[in-house]
Amino acid sequence: MTPRLDMIGLVVSDMAASLAFYRRLGLDVPADADAQPHVEATLPGGLRIAWDTEDVVRSFDPSWTPPTGGVRRELAFLCDSPAEVDALYAELTEAGHPGHLKPWDAFWGQRYAVVLDPDGCGVSLFAPSDAAR
Question: Where do the H-state alpha helices sit in the chain?
Fold first, then answer.
């Protein structure tokens, strides 16, 4: 048997705030999920993403504490164009989510930006740069 990646799990402080953020990034999460302690969504291709509240994690791991000292995970969202990177970054930061790296033309051939989710984790937004197309 060969293991395969099936789900990405995120531990969140505020389920409703986290789900609202990820809905803005196009994830299909039902509106009635905001009050749930555990939520899952299936992504294109079958990979799942799940959110658990800190209380859920502590229910099976009482010694769990939030990580400190830097980001340990980052999700990356492919956008259709460099202009979409800029627009999505503006939409998220105008909605109150902190920007970490403003959109820029990265040396590796992408328009690239990073915004922080409600738990302070980086979320990359990227698209092939116009020059790389």
Answer: 15-24, 54-60, 82-94
